[in-house]
Structure formats: structure tokens, C-alpha cells
Amino acid sequence: MMNQHDLDIVVKPAEESQLDFLEEVFSPGNLTKPQYRRYEVQEKGEGVYLIAWHQNHPIGHFLLRWSGPQDPHVTQNIDVTHSAFLEGGLTKDDYRKKGVATAIIREAERCSRERGCTHIGLEVSSKDNPEARRLYENLGYIDWGYGDFQISWEYHDKNGTSIRSDIVIFMQKSLA
Questions:
Q1: Which residues have C-beta within 8 Å of that of residue 171, sequence separation ≥ 6?
Q2: Spacing of C-alpha 81 from chain mean position
Q3: pLDDT tens profile 83-122
Q4: How many helices (H) and strands (E) does the chain have?
Q5: Are 135 and 102 in contact (CB under 8 A)?
């Protein structure tokens, strides 16, 4: 069993030539092609799709948007001007608790500061992901203080289209 110090993690933006491979690794069977959609955000200059690599194998990702969260529940309660937003985070099961998410988030924070953002935020499941919430708190993210809210998204697979949802909390961190 490896500990996080044994991993040589490299975090860098996704490249177009990697997208089919990233789909196979991160989203097998998902016909919505989420890695392509995340890469489109990067191509439009609206963010960067950060991939964590270990020995040429993708082991985690986050999409970093420059525009802050788009959820009306968040934007009507706090000012997200100059705020970056992390979404779509994932670490492969075999690499959890080994520093992968921390490495991606630290790179996202560095990129956000470089871009002139003063804050960075993310949403985390309120009930189903206490380990992620602890990680974010340990990295300095704080509960925004306006409670939980629901997010929803479409998922397409061989069985058709379904709507998935989760109850989340918004957390943010000052980059000052």
C-alpha cells in the first residue's frame, strides 16, 4: 500500500489528444462525454481542466472555472465577482487519501491567484461525502453560511437519459 508521499503526482491542463483516454478512465459508459465538455470550457478560455497524472496514468481531475459558480442559490446570496470555482472533482478509488485532490486543488488555487481571482469556491455533497468536506476544510475552505441546496444534471448512458441530483453545500476560500 502506497502513502501519499510515495506518489509522484503531476497536475496539468488536459490536452485534446487525451480526451478519448480520459473518457475511458473517468467516465466509461457515460454518453454525455463529460471530459469533452470540460475541455470545451478550457478551449473557450473560461477555465482550465486540470488532470492529475501518476506514471502517465490519469488519476484525478477538477474543472476550474474563472467565472465562479453559476447556481442561482449561490449567486443571489454572495458576490462571486473575482471568484474561481472548482467543479466535477474526482479521484480514482485506488488513489484516494494519497494527496491527489490536494495536489489538484493547490494547483487550481495557484492558477486562480495568477488569474487575479480573490476567492475560490466549490460545492460538496452535504450528506454523502464527509471525507471530501473534511479535506476542503483542512485546505482552508469554509462553509458559506447559507445552508444546503440541490443541484441537478443530465446523465446519458446506454439505458437512456436520467436526471441526477445531490444536496450540496457551497464552500469558499480567500486567496489573499
A1: 121, 122, 123, 124, 133, 136, 137, 141, 142, 143, 144
A2: 19
A3: 999 999 999 999 999 999 999 999 999 999 999 999 999 9
A4: 5, 8
A5: yes
